[in-house]
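Record type: monomer structure entry
Structure origin: computed from sequence
Chain ID: A
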Amino acid sequence: MLQLPDYPWNQLAPYRELAAQHPGGVVDLSIGTPIDDTPQIIQDALASAANSHGYPTTHGTTEVRQAIVDWFARRRNVTGLGLDDVMPTVGSKEMVAWLPLFLGLGVGDIVVRPKIAYPTYDIGAQLVGATPVATDDLSELTDEQLAKVKLIWVNSPGNPTGKVRDVQDLADIVRQARELGAVVASDECYAELGWDDVRGQVPSILDPRVNGGNLDNLFALYSLSKQSNLAGYRAAFIAGAPNLMPELVNSRKHTGMIVPGPIQHAMVVALGDEEHVRVQYDIYRARREALAPALRNFGLQIDDSVAGLYLWCTEQRPSFETIQRLAELGIVAGPGVFYGTAGEQHVRIALTASDERIAAAVERLNSSVNR
């Protein structure tokens, strides 16, 4: 039987109970699950493909792969992708968890992930017996460790920090990885949610400015959960690494990891329509602009948070002390310590609540200061 760590979110139960006692009800800003409607154009596309009696293709239909290639060229400045270099996946978490297995990693290998990061990067390494190492700078590793590095995870924009790596940062990682013979996998799921000066300026690992036009050993992961409210569809994709993609496709065929046919059809429509993405972006921007000043007024400092669906906040005390203070106002947040010891004095505040709940949180945060 696998012996994995307890799922960390279970630790929030007593704080959820405390928040639930607030007379105005809970404002749950802890988990970044979309709450707005799936755009009707995508719902209609899903329904139109409901007569799906045959097995879907693992590699993806020609239509969905072309839509992915076109989207990368149009939205991410990525050229050079062919139809064989992309594949739909069962959410991006599938690849975060299983890529070390598909790459053949095992005991003695090192998987590098950001210091503050989504816990599943560690789980993916642990599933195959590899060793996860948390660092944002490969120079911190010893020569002995560097010799064992087989996979380097990049997450930009970062979850939970909202930090964005620029072209030079990514280029340095690619150069170092190639010196080591390691694969780079870049989780880019929040790329369309850059705020202020960062909007439209979030580079991909597949951008030729980053890699010089050579995509070997470089994967980019993307999800439609955030930009299109498709978390329930598990609609995502992986692209790049033409030297590795054929074997990755083959491995997924053997393991039965297939995106359902109707979902693939809906993805084509979602990737081709930019209006619903702009609408959702503006909704999140308004929530962010309402919530950020209230959090600062409450005494929280907001670090990074230049992109993504979260505000990464601290009052220079342990995560759960801030979680307690917020729960007393009926607000549930995510403890930064869930994302590594480097986040133990932060909390993650999600923008994924209705306008009415965001307004309630703003009122409570401001009122608590003015009592």
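Annotation 1: The chain has 14 helices and 13 strands.
Annotation 2: The mean pLDDT is 94.
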